[in-house]
Design brief:
mainly alpha
């Protein structure tokens, strides 16, 4: 029984039924408007983008041709966490993803920390992807028309420019689309996903038609360490599958569609990634790709001498990366929305626009903040921060599956992770292993971000949380487990 005579503490746990009931509140409920096809397209749309069109060059520079193994290792590491996401998303169809799952398993303060972490992961990820979008736009303009935007408006100050204007434009355009509605956004994303798969198929066919084994020697110049270090960077290419879970509240049939979309999108993207990596090494050296913001276009242009094909690929990359910005930013708004609805962030931002059925005010605020970040921060420093934030979230989600199996064994689970707790624990181990390969500077920045989050929670989140300010609205909160 809930102890209503005592003020809930920082480890108060939200009951799953209470979380689901909260989604029907007037002015705070999102419209159920997306099905399995759109959800799977969201997963593919979020995963295939900057990772293969941009980050593959960084990975090849570290691991050489063995970057192919890095893609496989990163995919395997993600697979175990994807299973855990599938179970929790189908069981708790509420916006917020790992933040909400943590609130139902580990308590409020841990949920806040993971939510604060996800704000970093998604917000910074959108900025990084937007920077990659600008690089591919310039690659397309150069390949197709023989000119490019001047550095002053195409690069951040640390890269020799003044402002990254293309990055700002794409973020603001996506913000407008997200404000208009989830149905419109899902339809646009579906079209862009079709384009990106056609483009990658085109690249694979052209690459294998001009394939050479010359660039595969030496295969692993940096050894096993090079493969794992590159995998920690390339991991950035796979993080999109968890964005599917942020749309669980808007799914028509979350019990069936969410596991299918999460796992299916990861499998589809892994196949395309491995084939693309093999083809890229077959026509261009790692050194050629490493020095480019658009390595696949460079591979076709310099490696195969096919500038006309490079122009097509660069245009496809622009479309493809636009869909990543769309889906990841969508996920960011839904996580922030859930935190605002719970009172840990300003509740007025959780108001749903009655005309569009979206948290319009919140979306606009986040869009403006991310556009500033995209305009001024270079890609290199951001990617590793996104990776460490994602890996941290994966650890918590895997642990959440184990805990919820013990504390709520009777809860309906449309999808169940097989061989639990073994597979979730393997997911935790993989995440920790990849985290150890990230630079100490990344750990320092991440620790500073979490410390700032703890301060904000102490000053604002704890006092304004609905389990304290509106206990009648959250009857399902549970006291912390007794020691």
């Amino acid at each position: 029984m809930t102890d209503t005579s005592r003020r809930p503490g920082i480890f108060a746990i939200r009951d799953v039924r209470s979380l689901i009931t909260e989604t029907a509140e007037e002015g705070h409920g999102l419209k159920k408007a997306v099905g399995a096809t759109h959800l799977t397209a969201m997963g593919v749309g979020a995963i295939i983008g900057t990772g293969i069109f941009v980050v593959i060059g960084k990975g090849a520079g570290i691991a050489g041709p063995a970057v192919i193994l890095s893609f496989v290792l990163a995919a395997v590491a993600c697979a175990f966490s994807a299973l855990s996401y599938a179970e929790l998303a189908s069981s708790i169809p509420v916006a917020g993803s790992a933040y909400t799952y943590t609130y139902a398993t580990l308590g409020e303060v841990v949920a806040w920390i993971i939510g604060w972490d996800l704000i970093l992961e998604y917000g910074v990820s959108v900025a990084a992807i937007a920077v990659g979008w600008g690089g591919n736009l310039n690659a397309f303009l150069d390949a197709a028309f023989g000119f490019a935007l001047p550095d002053a408006i195409a690069k951040s100050p640390s890269e020799g420019g003044v402002v990254n204007l293309p990055a700002v434009v794409v973020v603001l355009a996506i913000t407008f689309l997200l404000v208009r509605g989830v149905t419109e956004s899902a339809r646009v994303n579906l079209v862009m996903v079709a384009v990106k798969l056609v483009v990658l198929t085109f690249f694979i066919v052209v690459a294998f038609a001009n394939f050479s084994t010359d660039n595969f020697q030496p295969f692993a110049p940096a050894g096993v360490n090079g493969v794992t270090t590159a995998a920690a960077i390339i991991f950035f290419a796979y993080i999109g599958f968890d964005a599917v879970s942020t749309g669980s509240e808007e799914a028509r049939r979350p019990d069936r569609d969410l596991p299918l979309a999460i796992i299916g999108s990861l499998v589809i993207c892994t196949v395309f990634y491995v084939l693309t990596a093999v083809g890229a090494i077959g026509i261009a050296s790692p050194e050629q790709m490493e020095g480019s913001d658009a390595p696949l276009a460079t591979a076709l242009d310099e490696g195969a001498g096919m500038d006309w094909a490079a122009a097509i690929l660069a245009l496809g990359a622009v479309v493809a990366i636009t869909s990543v910005v769309l889906v990841i930013m969508y996920g960011q708004t839904r996580i922030f929305f859930a935190m605002c609805r719970d009172g840990l962030m300003p509740q007025r931002l959780a108001q749903v626009n009655q005309r569009y059925g979206t948290p319009a005010r919140l979306t606009i605020v986040l869009g403006l903040l991310i556009s500033v970040l995209a305009a001024l921060v270079p890609l290199g420093a951001i990617v590793e921060l996104v990776n460490i934030g994602t890996l941290f979230a994966f650890i918590v989600v895997n642990i959440g599956v184990i805990i919820l199996r013990r504390t709520r064994p009777e809860m309906p689970r449309p999808y169940r992770v097989p061989w639990s707790p073994v597979l979730p624990l393997i997911g935790v181990a993989f995440a920790i292993y990849l985290m150890t390969d990230l630079p100490w500077e990344t750990w320092l920045r991440f620790a500073a971000w979490l410390a700032l989050g703890v301060v904000i929670y102490a000053l604002y989140g704890y006092r304004n949380s609905r389990v304290r300010s509106e206990p009648e609205a959250t009857p399902g909160w549970a006291k912390e487990p007794e020691q």
